[in-house]
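Data availability excerpt. The first of two example chains:
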Amino acid sequence: MSTQIEFKVAAPPFRWDEAGGIRIGDSRVTLDSLLAAYHHGSTPEEIAVQYSVLHLEEIYAAIAYYLSHRQKIDNYLDQRRQKAQQQHSQFVQQYNLANLRQRLSDRDRNQGEFIANASIN
């Protein structure tokens, strides 16, 4: 008499957020972040330490889904990168950030000169 074992296939622990990103479980951790850690050589156990709000089962499930659907997830990640680059470019243009570091440096230098001149008088 053999006993059959019943297996249940669980859906990946993904949910879409309001910005169109994929989050893991009930956390705010994005699939992008989890996979970045994975691609940088972190093990699921190390990822669990980095993102203590995630359960190890969620991490393994997310990675397993990625490995089974690599092209689909890579396309999603590419779209996210492109959108982030576009938003960054728009932000830089909108707020004239192209030479912000130089302008701040010039301002600090001018203020230093003003303070030095004021203390002499």
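And the second chain:
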Amino acid sequence: MEFRHVFVCVNQRPPGHPMGSCAEKGGRDIYMKLMEKLQMDPELFMSTAVTPTGCLGPCGLGPTIVVYPDGVWYGNVKPSDVDEIVQSHLKGGQPVERLVVSKGKPPGMF
């Protein structure tokens, strides 16, 4: 299994901020669910790092997560999507296409 590093936006903005925030949309729940999955699976634990981050940029697509070295950006992720991301992408090497917003570079940038 290839080593992957998953970054999960957990950025929190003030209530009512026009851009919203990934934390308000479930970013922290996504992070916690990913961590639970890692702790329950020794193979995944040894092949995956999960890091909570501040703003990753595409706020309108949040919650946002990025998987490296693949460069796959997921948007509008819900905690209920975590199992599919783990099984399909982190364990199986196949991105969950219905959630992919960009591959190789941040969406809407560069």
